[in-house]
Amino acid sequence: MKGLDLLLGILVTIIWGSNFSVIEVGLRDLDPFLLTGLRFALTALPLVFFLRKPRDVPFAALAAYGVIFGVGLWWVVNLAMAKGMSPGMSSLVLQFSAFFTVVASAVFLQERMTGAQVAGMLLAASGLGFVIAYTRGTATTVGIALVLVAACAWTVCNLIVKRYRPADMMAFVVWSSLFSAPVLLCLTFLDKGVEPFVHLFNDVSWAAIGSVVFQAYVTTVFGYMVWNNLMKTYPAAMVAPLSLIVPVSGIVTSYVAFDERFSAGVWVGVAVMLFGIGVFVCAPYLRRRVVVA
Prior knowledge:
The protein is mostly helical and 293 residues long. Helix content is 80%, strand content 0%. The protein contains 13 helices and no strands.
């Protein structure tokens, strides 16, 4: 992976980790359905009027990505957090998508993994398991199950990007969000009626507005434009493990913003995860050096 691409990937995963705390702020004022719907409505509008619809992606694939991404991934995560999952714990469990994506790409797209990459992935996975085992009081069984469903949804989204490789990734993210928003807003109305919308216009806080804006433009437009470009350019085994930086950022942000405390075992797990990621990222360079030698 080129140095600039690697730095952009790391930057995006740091942003995504902090995003879980941003979501937590929004959930204090807004219904989970509505918060997610507003995020994708703002992602699509007004940018959809300035960007051409992607011509290299079938309509059905664009719509499927939008619905799976908006509902299957982010509404499910917001619902899990509303049911008791903390920002730090949510960011941890969601990263099982990294392993799901690597395995799915190997099975369905015949992408290969080196032995060093497998070792790095197993190290990072053991660190993630260690963190989850030592995290107390910040998760629920239902919440964990929901976030695992979201991780599967993210894997499907990654495979769609790798299959069609959109040329204009910003247009792809914006236009797919046009399919996410109506479904999410309809779900809000069916679940809660007009009350969330009335509350939105009457007394929503500036903090909640800031949460929606950050999620729409920083997390979604910028973040997924960069991430999807990496996904279409490089093998999943080289990109997906970078997302394991997300829980590290999520834990630190949750600690700073909400004073969420973690045991020493959690920090040991974080160290193992980072070491595994380091092995994963360096694997292609180590292999090249051995071949040259």
